[in-house]
What we know:
The chain is an alpha+beta fold. The longest helix has 14 residues, at about 45-55. The chain has two domains: about 5-85, Uridine Diphospho-n-acetylenolpyruvylglucosamine Reductase, domain 2; about 90-200, 2-Layer Sandwich (Uridine Diphospho-n-acetylenolpyruvylglucosamine Reductase, domain 3), CATH 3.30.465. It contains six helices and 13 strands. Helix 1 (about 5-15) packs antiparallel against helix 2. The termini are far apart. Strand 5 (about 90) and strand 6 (about 100) form a beta hairpin. It is globular and about 55 Å long. It has a five-stranded antiparallel sheet.
Amino acid sequence: MRMPTIADLRAAFGERLQENVTLAPYTSARIGGPADALIVVKSADELAEAVSQLWALDAPYLILGGGSNVLVSDRGARGVVVLNRAKAVRFETGERPQVWAESGVVFSNLANRCAAQGLAGLEWASAIPGTLGGAVYGNAGAFGGDVAGSLIETELLTGRGRETWTADKMEYGYRASVLKRGAARAVILSAAFGLKNATAAD
């Protein structure tokens, strides 16, 4: 199959597609040359739609969240960069509280928002850089906690469509997962984490 051209990408994404965008402002190191093309997504639905179209075109792509663990060369990035700005958050309270969030949320911000709501369980994540998607992908952890110990489920886009996986199906190891090991092609859309009421946690 031939590589898609900018015209092919423009036909798929219309005015959403930006060309020759410098990536330095989107990485924490503030370095990086231009991407051939860039798309900004602002919800899990938009992320799923964009990646589905890129898969259909067989286009090379990179999903960029907070850019905290990414070094982009001065030559830039080939293909399409999908800038993940999907940041919706929803809390469920009660005896078994939890938080659901989209994959573009900054993970440390999510942990701090939980604490502000009087909900414990993600304190270990308050200093972790990067987004929820990267944390779920790599089983991020600190101070004795990690994603594997907190995750209820994650919604992903796979070749079969949108699926919900439990922590067990993610096959977590130390800073590793089935996705990070390359054993499955999937994109993390959102995740839900189990919490505790702070008074009960004390």
